[in-house]
Design a protein that fits this description.
The structure is a single chain. The strands form six sheets. Strands 1, 2, 3, 4, 5, 6, 14, 15, 16, 17, 18 and 19 form a twelve-stranded mixed β-sheet that branches. This protein has a four-stranded mixed β-sheet with strand order 20-22-23-21. The chain has a three-stranded antiparallel β-sheet with strand order 7-12-13, with helices on one face. The radius of gyration is 23 Å and the shape is globular. With 557 residues, the protein is of the alpha/beta class. The protein is built from 18 helices and 25 strands.
Length: 557
């Protein structure tokens, strides 16, 4: 199309308001804001700490992602703009993008089309430096741990049982497994080590679950970094690093205020990986937004089996949140892909493939309704190639579950294109719900994992590798088992096999590694081929990103 504009071109043409005006629009006292240039600010939320949360919380999630795209962040932004457009008091709370996906395959994560948060380039790149601060805190812990060992190892740390890794906010497979401390005796202790991507660091998970600075420091102190030769956990507090780490994070922990293309206020803060960590923006941003508006729109990463499950079972449990509505985003194209259609053929009407792929959406809807007791709305993120027959099929199948599937055109029309979705969400938010978790934290690790696997994934059960079984027994013996579970699983399928599309049956989940994140307050269960340090593709998105002579960024999504 001759008039097609890329996301970055649309964002760069935006008429942004000075961030002080955006703060005023949100009812935020400008005296509590710290501007980062003209269009970004951090908000010191201390003065809002005792204010009551009044908003109805709307979670935006999605079907299992496909190469065809679903548009979860785009829908979150469009819904927020639409709520404002129909006269509702609304706030938006999103995650910050990681540089790894930005330079890798996924590209940016600030929305798309005419439903974006801006300044888009800043948000997708360094933004206000939060991720750099989190990486610095993570690596300070690593440096102090190795220094403790070098300076005499008073805690008798077992060099073969160090579980803390360094991090960098980049997809860099070369750093997954390294040997450091090479050189002379003065250069440190030689040992095997490795890097995770910053968004997989436990510091990131802690950062996003902390309620204030004191809670942040306490959580950092509880992080387990290694075990002694007698099997005793060694924590960040044991190596006396929690105070310095908190100092590095004292400004980063303040939520970032930006705006949408329609000048509506938005918090963008924190960003744990959804298939490794809990995949939600910070508790501080969400709860502060809920004190400022009548409706708060937030999102959780990847499909509902990962992001929504963690949002509901981990974040809501930790922060005492109760959602009023869950929006499940789907596209006709993505559902046809789940039905077996190749990406190149998705623009052609195919009702048979659509019907074959629909169980993926319907299973997510049923999970939200029956497992968690929450009302749901399906947002059909519109594409020009969608046919009336395809849209009707999706709407009819959702109606059989008592759920309205609403066509949303926010990508092309902004908030105006999502007004019908906003009105349906408002209607659903007024309905009573019976929100409950999918498991009790007092259950055993195996019982909790089986609950997630059978109720959410619809698997037949969970198996443990010998290594994971031994780790399970260790966690139970140390009394570290009565916490939520954070399952690290492929985002592309309900199963732990990315090739099983749709709503697979007759499979089991294999847990190959169990790790306690004592600061975050959950156990990470790694399944399948999930890695904590991704790699770049053959043709990274970074190849297309450039800067013109006048400083204008091009090629970014």
């Amino acid at each position: 199309m001759a008039d097609y504009k890329s996301d970055i071109e649309i964002a760069q043409e935006a008429n942004m308001l000075p961030i002080e005006e955006v703060a005023n629009k949100a009812g935020i006292d400008w005296a509590t804001c710290e501007p980062y240039g003209h269009y970004k600010a951090k908000v010191d939320i201390h003065s809002y700490k005792d204010a009551p949360m009044k908003a109805k919380l709307i979670l935006v999630t999605a079907i299992n992602p496909t190469p065809a795209g679903e548009g979860k962040t785009t829908t979150s932004v469009g819904l927020h703009d639409a709520l404002c457009a129909i006269g509702k008091s609304s706030m938006l709370a999103l995650r910050e993008p990681s540089l790894g996906p930005v330079f890798g395959v996924k590209g940016g994560a600030a929305g798309g089309g005419y439903a974006q948060v801006v300044p888009m380039e800043d948000i997708n790149l360094h933004f206000t430096g939060d991720f750099h601060a989190i990486g610095a805190a993570n690596n300070l812990i690593a440096a102090m741990l190795d220094n403790h060992i070098k300076q005499g190892n008073e805690l008798d740390i077992d060099l073969n049982n160090i579980i803390w890794r360094r991090c960098v906010d980049m997809n860099d497979r070369q750093l997954r497994n390294v040997v450091d401390g090479l050189g002379t005796a003065g250069d440190g202790v030689c040992r095997e080590d490795g890097f995770d991507i910053t968004v997989a660091s436990e510091v990131m998970a802690v950062f996003c679950l902390a309620t204030d600075l004191d809670d942040l420091k306490a959580r950092l102190g509880r992080i387990i970094v290694a075990y002694s030769r007698t099997g005793k956990p060694v924590t960040v507090s044991d190596i006396k690093a929690e105070g310095a780490c908190t100092a590095l994070l004292k400004d980063a922990i303040k939520p970032n205020l930006v705006q949408t293309l329609e000048n509506n206020p938005a918090f963008v803060h924190g960003g744990p990986f959804a298939n490794i960590a809990h995949g939600c923006n910070s508790v501080q941003a969400t709860t502060t937004a809920m004190k400022m508006a009548d409706y708060v729109v937030t999102e959780a990463g990847f499909g509902a089996d990962l992001g929504a499950e963690k949002f509901l079972d981990i974040k809501c449990r930790a922060a005492g949140l109760k959602p009023s509505c869950v929006v499940i985003v789907a596209t006709v194209r993505a559902l046809k892909h789940h039905g077996g259609v190749a990406k190149a053929d998705l623009n052609t009407e195919n009702l048979e493939a659509l019907e074959a792929g629909l169980p993926n959406l319907l299973q997510h809807v049923e999970n939200i309704q029956k497992v968690y007791g929450l009302p749901a709305v399906v947002a059909i993120n519109a594409f020009p190639t969608d046919t009336e027959a395809e849209l009707k099929l999706v709407q009819d199948k959702c109606a059989e579950l008592g759920v309205n599937a609403v066509l949303a055109e926010h990508w092309a029309k902004g908030g105006e294109g999502a007004k019908a979705l906003a009105e349906e969400v408002v209607r659903v938010c007024d309905q009573p719900n019976d929100f409950h978790f999918s498991y009790d934290v007092e259950q055993s690790i195996e019982e909790k994992l089986n609950a997630i696997a059978t109720k959410i994934y619809h698997a037949d059960g969970v198996d443990f590798t010998p290594k994971a079984k031994k780790q399970l027994e260790q966690l139970e013996s140390l009394g570290l088992d009565k916490v939520p579970i954070c399952v690290a699983k492929t985002q592309y399928s309900f199963a732990d096999d990315a090739t099983k599309l749709g709503a697979p049956k007759d499979f089991r989940i294999t847990v190959r590694n169990l790790k306690i994140s004592a600061g975050a307050g959950f156990i990470v269960a790694l399944t399948g081929e999930i890695m904590t340090m991704p790699g770049l593709p053959k043709r990274p998105a970074a190849e297309k990103i450039d800067v013109t002579a006048d400083g204008k960024i091009v090629g970014l999504f």
